[in-house]
């Protein structure tokens, strides 16, 4: 087991109640700069579409902006939804980012559309065909990055020879199998679909084939994490997260909502069951509680890196939580 676990941050750029995309971009920049100063390892942004309250639709543009506003932290996609795009264009875009920000760019690739089916069709009419070609298109991106592609008739500039690590992202056994077969690092979306996570990690490790990209398995789990001065305060802050997932269950999406004093009476038993399933990998509390719970999770999952996402309504509360979680991981690593 890796005894020195890096901590990274996934930012979903949710627009809060009463805010807008412009303010959200400013907050995202400040969050990235704080994470950079605290020596977080990565800052990833995710591709979503047709969601009025998610500001990361033009993911590559936002990655470039965040990279330009930070110094050392790796910036990347968690992820780019590859069936929405041409592998050539993605290689060109991330080759450009790597040229501008050397050794700081990650390319996380997912198979899902990051949206509803109608919007997926609007983005690309052959989306479903392309989703079946996901393994082939992942390989195409590697080919475009490779110096060996210099003799090909179709080349990606300035991607050729660029050092852009490619991660496979997922929440199923299919993604684990692909990452293992290609010898690529594997990140699991435990922050919204944790059910298969431990099984997927085990399958990935057992079936991993060393490659020129990676000689041994490399795993990262993304989880929800909320830190505060007290357990009680963290519980209150976390009600924003549960309201967000309740909106998904009800198909009633809203801007990120302010916290509530209590969730009592908010959900039916069936709704609570579904919300609890999606949020099973949620860690919240004071430093002491988080240190105990996250250490237990890291030991059991045997991950090589922890990525957190923190859907917290108030920006200053969120910044404070990011500080607390870095201290927690530092303490775990020192133990």
UniProtKB/TrEMBL annotation:
Source organism, top-level taxon: Bacteria
Domain Luciferase-like, residue spans: 16-243
GO cellular component, one term: cytosol
Pfam families: Bac_luciferase (PF00296)
GO MF entry, a single one: oxidoreductase activity, acting on paired donors, with incorporation or reduction of molecular oxygen
Gene3D superfamilies according to UniProt: Luciferase-like domain (3.20.20.30)
UniProt record similarity statement: To bacterial alkanal monooxygenase alpha and beta chains.
Stated name of the protein: Luciferase-like monooxygenase
Species name: Flavobacterium hydatis (Cytophaga aquatilis)
């Amino acid at each position: 087991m890796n005894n020195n676990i890096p901590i990274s941050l996934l930012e979903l750029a949710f627009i809060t109640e009463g805010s807008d995309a412009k303010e959200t971009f400013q907050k995202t920049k400040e969050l990235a700069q704080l994470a950079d100063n605290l020596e977080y390892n990565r800052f990833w942004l995710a591709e979503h579409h047709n969601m009025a309250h998610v500001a990361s639709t033009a993911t590559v543009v936002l990655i470039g902006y965040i990279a330009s506003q930070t110094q050392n932290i790796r910036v990347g996609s968690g992820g780019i939804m590859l069936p929405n795009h041409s592998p050539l264009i993605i290689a060109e875009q991330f080759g450009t980012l790597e040229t501008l920000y050397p050794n700081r760019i990650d390319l996380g690739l997912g198979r899902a559309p990051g949206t509803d089916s109608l919007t997926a069709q609007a983005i690309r009419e052959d989306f479903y065909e392309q989703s079946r070609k996901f393994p082939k298109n992942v390989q195409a991106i590697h080919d475009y990055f490779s110096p060996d592609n210099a003799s090909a008739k179709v080349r990606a500039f300035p991607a050729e020879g660029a050092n852009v690590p490619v991660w496979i992202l997922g929440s199923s056994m299919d993604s684990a199998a692909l990452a293992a077969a290609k010898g690529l690092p594997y990140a699991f979306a435990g922050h919204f679909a944790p059910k298969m996570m431990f099984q997927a990690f085990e399958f990935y490790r057992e079936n991993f084939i060393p490659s020129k990209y990676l000689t041994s398995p490399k795993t990262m789990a993304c989880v929800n994490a909320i830190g505060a001065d007290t357990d009680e305060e963290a519980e209150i802050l976390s009600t924003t997260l549960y309201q967000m997932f309740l909106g998904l269950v009800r198909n009633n999406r809203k801007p990120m909502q302010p916290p509530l004093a209590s969730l009592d009476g908010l959900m039916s038993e069936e709704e609570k069951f579904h919300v609890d399933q999606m949020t099973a990998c949620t860690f919240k509390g004071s430093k002491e509680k988080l240190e105990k719970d996250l250490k237990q999770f890291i030991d059991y999952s045997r991950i090589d890196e922890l990525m957190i996402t923190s859907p917290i309504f108030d920006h200053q509360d969120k910044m404070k939580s990011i500080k607390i979680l870095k201290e927690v991981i530092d303490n775990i690593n020192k133990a």
